Amino acid sequence: MQPVTIYTTAWCPYCSAAKSLLKEKGAAFQEIDVERVQGSRAAMVEKAGGRTSVPQIFVGATHVGGCDDLYALERAGTLDRLLKDTADA
Q1: In the chain, at which end, N or C, are there fewer CB atoms within 10 A of the end residue's CB?
Q2: pTM for this one?
Q3: Could you tell me the residue ranges of all domains in the chain?
Q4: What CA–CA distance (Å, rounded) separates 79 from 52?
Q5: Nearest 5 degrees, angle CA 81-CA 77-CA 74?
């Protein structure tokens, strides 16, 4: 599976929903709390092309976007393929 990184805050319901879907898919992820990890919000904004809201989700080098974007990939049937794609395939 591709490495997944999700930028979150502890109190965000959209972050919780996104993490729930990733867990349901069996995807391990690195969670970075932008309120606790110094400099992480600035890093997230830079990686996310200026987006400041959480969650911001990255699968490998692909910026998925936020919770709604993640669920849209699931509805479109493309999330599993994105999670599964590997650089060595």
Answers
A1: C
A2: 0.92
A3: 12-84
A4: 23
A5: 95
Are the C-beta atoms of residues 57 and 18 closer than 8 Å to each other? yes
C-alpha pair distances (Å), 67 with each of 71, 73, 89: 6, 10, 27
Determine which helix (DSSP H) or strand (DSSP E) holds 41, and give its type and residue range: helix 40-47
Q: What is the pLDDT along the chain (89 residues), one digit of tens a residue?
A: 889 999 999 999 999 999 999 999 999 999 999 999 999 999 999 999 999 999 999 999 999 999 999 999 999 999 999 999 754 33
Three-state secondary structure call for residue 55: coil
- List, in sequence order, every beta strand (DSSP E) within 10-83: 29-33, 56-59, 62-65
Domain 12-84 has CATH 3.40.30.10: yes
| Kind plus residue range of the DSSP H or E element containing 8 | strand 4-8
